[in-house]
Amino acid sequence: MKKLMRSSTDKILFGVCAGIAEFFSISPFIVRLIFFVTGSVVIYIILAALLPENPSLY
């Protein structure tokens, strides 16, 4: 079962967009573009605070 989590490997700021993209199996670029075009800064900050970070196994 998939869980929505922030990415710890493919992140620019907090990994929210990459985590959403991984959850829906789409490109992180698409999700970043959607956040940028819609100006969803508040939603991004809320998700960054609420979503747990995916533990890295490096």
Automatic annotation (TrEMBL):
Source organism of this protein record: Siminovitchia terrae (Bacillus terrae)
Keyword annotations: Cell membrane, Membrane, Transmembrane, Transmembrane helix
Residue stretches in coiled coil: none
Residue intervals passing through the bilayer: 33-51
Protein name (database record): Phage shock protein PspC N-terminal domain-containing protein
InterPro entries: Phageshock_PspC_N, PspC
Domain Phage shock protein PspC N-terminal positions: 2-53
Highest taxon of the lineage: Bacteria
Subcellular location: Cell membrane
Stored PANTHER family: PHAGE SHOCK PROTEIN C
UniProt topology in membrane: Single-pass membrane protein
